[in-house]
Write a structure and sequence with these properties.
InterPro entries: DUF2058. With 179 residues, the protein is of the alpha+beta class. It has five helices and five strands, in the order αααββαββαβ.
């Protein structure tokens, strides 16, 4: 069916299908009869197809590389959280916060609770649990990737802008208000 070795190689490489190979064979036969030789055009087509395939492969490799780097970054952050979390935080004082749109309630010791309220500790997501981390480590994690730190009581965040027409603007609501 295929008379040319180059066409056989193109078929094996998947660059040309059987229909295209037959068309090229007929074209070569016609050129031989008429005396024209169009090898340069065929080579140009092959080069163009190879360049397109190379560009597509490079784009796929770049995308895979980005995914692998993101996985490695997540793994390193999870490892940092596991290594530096504060152990033995259970206690009698309840602390409520929002995680994925739901209000979560944890029971903490008074010392950990006070550290959370003042902002020296933060709550981070540790897979299915919560970890309590020092503020400096939490800032490093937040710089690397967003989404791991759930509660960060910054003192800068508490200076909320007030509306001048608000009659209760002079009254500050404390963060540790218990209902």
């Amino acid at each position: 069916m295929v008379k040319n070795a180059l066409q056989a190689q193109l078929l094996k490489a998947g660059l040309v299908d059987n229909k295209k190979a037959k068309k090229l064979t007929k074209q070569v036969q016609h050129e031989q009869r008429t005396g024209k030789n169009d090898d340069a055009a065929l080579k140009a087509d092959i080069d163009r197809v190879n360049q397109e395939k190379l560009a597509k492969d490079q784009a796929l490799n770049l995308e895979k590389q980005k995914i692998l780097e993101e996985k490695a970054l997540k793994a390193s952050i999870i490892q940092m959280i596991k290594q530096h979390k504060i152990p033995q935080t259970e206690g009698d004082v309840s602390y409520q916060f929002i995680d994925e749109g739901k209000i979560k309630k944890v029971y903490l010791s008074q010392q950990v609770y006070n550290a959370l309220v003042t902002g020296s500790l933060v709550i981070a997501k540790d897979q299915d649990k919560y970890a309590y981390l020092p503020k400096a480590l939490a800032e490093k994690i937040d710089q690397k990737m967003q989404g791991f730190i759930l509660v960060n009581n910054n003192t800068e965040k508490n200076d909320q802008s007030t509306n001048e027409e608000d009659p209760y603007a002079a009254y500050v609501i404390p963060d540790d208000l218990m209902w």
